[in-house]
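Hi all, posting the design record for the shared folder.

TITLE: backbone redesign
STEP: 1 of 1
STRUCTURE INPUT:
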């Protein structure tokens, strides 16, 4: 006999609200975190001290988010000056190093959902602050997560970018559309390839499946980590060619060397 009974929506709602008021446990050091409050909103399961020691990027390329040396006199990196990408800006507040990389690995490859929850909260806070402090900049009207090919989706069981996008969509009240774009080619893991190979590898890898939805829209393209910007460049070109108005890149982390 099937004894499984789905929990009523009211239970989930109550649990979510209770969790907000109960103390959390820092996912990095295990100490009890008080309920977030005060002047800055911290993710529920991250203590103040671990939050401070995350690998925040202080100075970055205004366009692709590449970390630049502190006090750098230029606002753009060499690559963006030489080959300006089609996207307008990148919000990637952290370097892809420990301990952030551990949280991302736990979420992405070990399916640890609380880590995904924490990462989603972190990114939502940073995105919301970014537009708050840039009042002339209009926030995107739609979030599109970078899609996985169905084979990789099937193996992993979920798309990490889609999960983050879903959370941020709810937090910022911006619709998320994970069906507007499809990955039609199963490409080898990008990590082992150099810049040119990556760009070649991605040619025709994506296709816009719902052009009317993106027409004249400001799109936030969301991924967990930006490495060489090859994916961001390829998809931005595609979205703009299909009528999108502008593309902003949102990611948790940026690798330090744009190699
Ligand atoms: Zn901690
Ligand atoms: Zn750049």
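Okay, here is what came back for every position:
SEQUENCE:
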């Amino acid at each position: 006999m099937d004894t499984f009974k789905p929990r009523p929506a009211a239970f989930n709602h109550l649990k979510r609200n209770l969790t907000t008021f109960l103390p959390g446990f820092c996912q990095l050091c295990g100490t009890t975190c008080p309920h977030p409050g005060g002047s800055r909103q911290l993710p529920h399961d991250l203590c103040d001290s671990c939050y401070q020691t995350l690998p925040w990027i202080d100075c970055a390329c205004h366009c692709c988010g590449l970390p630049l040396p502190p006090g750098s006199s230029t606002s753009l990196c060499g690559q963006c000056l030489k080959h300006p990408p089609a996207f307008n800006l990148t919000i990637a507040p952290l370097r892809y190093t420990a301990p952030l990389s551990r949280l991302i690995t736990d979420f992405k490859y070990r399916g640890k959902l609380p880590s995904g929850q924490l990462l989603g909260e972190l990114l939502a806070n940073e995105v919301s602050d970014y537009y708050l402090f840039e009042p002339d900049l209009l926030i995107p009207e739609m979030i599109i997560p970078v899609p996985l090919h169905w084979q990789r989706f099937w193996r992993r069981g979920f798309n990490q970018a889609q999960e983050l996008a879903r959370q941020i969509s709810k937090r910022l009240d911006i619709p998320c559309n994970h069906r507007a774009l499809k990955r039609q080619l199963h490409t080898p893991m990008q990590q082992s390839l150099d810049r040119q190979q990556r760009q070649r590898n991605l040619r025709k890898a994506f296709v816009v499946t719902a052009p009317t939805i993106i027409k004249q829209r400001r799109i936030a393209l969301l991924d967990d980590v930006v490495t060489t910007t090859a994916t961001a460049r390829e998809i931005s070109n595609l979205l703009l060619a299909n009528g999108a108005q502008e593309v902003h890149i949102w990611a948790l982390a940026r690798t330090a060397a744009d190699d």
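COMMENT: The beta strands are 24-25, 32-33, 89-91, 94-95, 142-145, 181-183, 206-208, 218-226, 246-254.
Let me know if anyone wants the other runs.
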